[in-house]
Amino acid sequence: MPEISRFFGIVIRMFFDDHNPPHFHAEFQEHRAIFDIQNVRLLDGGLPPKQLKQVQAWALLHQRELMENFINLGKEFKSYNKIDPLQ
User: Which branch of life, at top level (predicted)?
Assistant: First the structure.
């Protein structure tokens, strides 16, 4: 699963040709979570509260880029664009 961003120990990934709704995967230590891109809400799994807020803040800043990756690149099996980390 390609890595598209990394910040504060959190790794953001996407699968090629993944199912709807548009989403991304976040990993922090042993925690795993899946987030809906359009509503920036947790779909499955979980993260500690601090990391959950960081991922949600990052996703709000980069919704357009996330959708571009999911819809246009992921379905065509092209390389995902890297997305800037949360600063």
Answer: Bacteria
11 touches 2 (CB < 8 A):
no
Residues of the chain with pLDDT under 70: 73-78
| Cα–Cα separations (whole angstroms), residue 58 to 9, 17, 74, 82, 87 | 13, 23, 20, 13, 9
What are 25's strand-pairing partners? 13, 34
| Predicted TM-score (pTM) of this structure | 0.89
Pair 28, 10: CB distance under 8 Å = yes
CA separation for the pair 38, 31 (Å, rounded) = 22
**Distance, CA of 71 to CA of 7 (rounded, Å):** 23
Cα separation, 53 vs 5, whole angstroms: 16
Rounded-to-integer distance, Cα 75 and Cα 58, Å? 23
